[in-house]
Design a protein that fits this description.
It is a single chain. With 71 residues, the chain is mainly alpha-helical. It has one domain (3-70). The protein is 93% helix and 0% strand. It is built from two helices and no strands.
């Protein structure tokens, strides 16, 4: 088997691996974005629980307005 044959045989798996790595990197980025969104929503819920428990409707309204403005 010549060197050219060996290189052409190894190029196909390498290209497939490069494609798969790029695909996995995109999926990891998507997961990071989802996790960030979950963290933001968790923060909002946490911030809302205290004013809701205290009956502070003005603070709740302020937090909800700030959340809507951030979208």
């Amino acid at each position: 088997m010549s060197i050219k044959d060996r290189l052409s045989r190894s190029a196909a798996p390498t290209a497939e691996l490069e494609r798969r790595v790029a695909e996995l990197e995109a999926e990891v980025q998507e997961c990071r974005n989802v996790n960030l969104r979950v963290a933001e929503l968790t923060d909002l819920v946490t911030q809302l629980l205290v004013p809701l428990a205290a009956g502070d409707q003005e603070r709740v309204r302020e937090l909800v307005e700030r959340y809507h403005a951030s979208l």
